[in-house]
Amino acid sequence: MDRVVRGKNVAVVISPEYGAGWYSWSNDITMLFDPGLVGLVEEGDEGKIHTYVSLKWAGEYLEGSERGLEVWWVPLGKKFRIHDYDGAETIEMMDQIDWITA
After folding, report:
1. Contact indicator for 31, 22 with CB cutoff of 8 Å
2. What is the pLDDT of residue 101?
3. Mean pLDDT for each consecutive 10-residue tract of the chain (102 residues)?
4. Which residues have CB under 8 Å from 62's CB, separation 6+?
5. Residues near 96 by Cβ (< 8 Å), separated by ≥ 6?
6. Are 35 and 67 in contact (CB under 8 A)?
């Protein structure tokens, strides 16, 4: 899978605004790392972003892209997950999660 790597970090696209998730409402992992989308998000052209995602992921629920996407940088090789709370996505690193043992 293609990814954008800068230094020792990988670009991950998420939707941090409340309302609808981006990846969390579709679970197509390519949406997180897509180099073309990373470039458009960094440019900040909402019209181009909407056209791009509509064409690339036509069968997915894409409302999260309309609320603003952001590029977050994750250390290369680190395990993470996308946490969704009421549509607002954040990134949680595996080693930062406090697990509870029964």
Report:
1. yes
2. 67
3. 95 91 86 96 91 90 83 94 89 80 72
4. 26, 53, 54
5. none
6. no
H-assigned helices in the chain: 30-33, 35-43, 46-56, 63-66
Q: With H, G, I as helix, E, B as strand and everything else as coil, classify residue 76.
A: coil
Terminal C-alpha separation, the chain: 37
Dihedral (CA of 35, 39, 40, 42) sign:
positive
Provide the whole-model pTM.
0.88
Collapsing DSSP states into helix, strand and coil, what is residue 66? helix
SS3 content of the chain, % helix, strand, coil (to 5): 30, 25, 45
Rounded to whole angstroms, the Cα distance separating 32 from 62 reads 13
Q: Could you tell me the two tokens for 52?
A: 């791009």
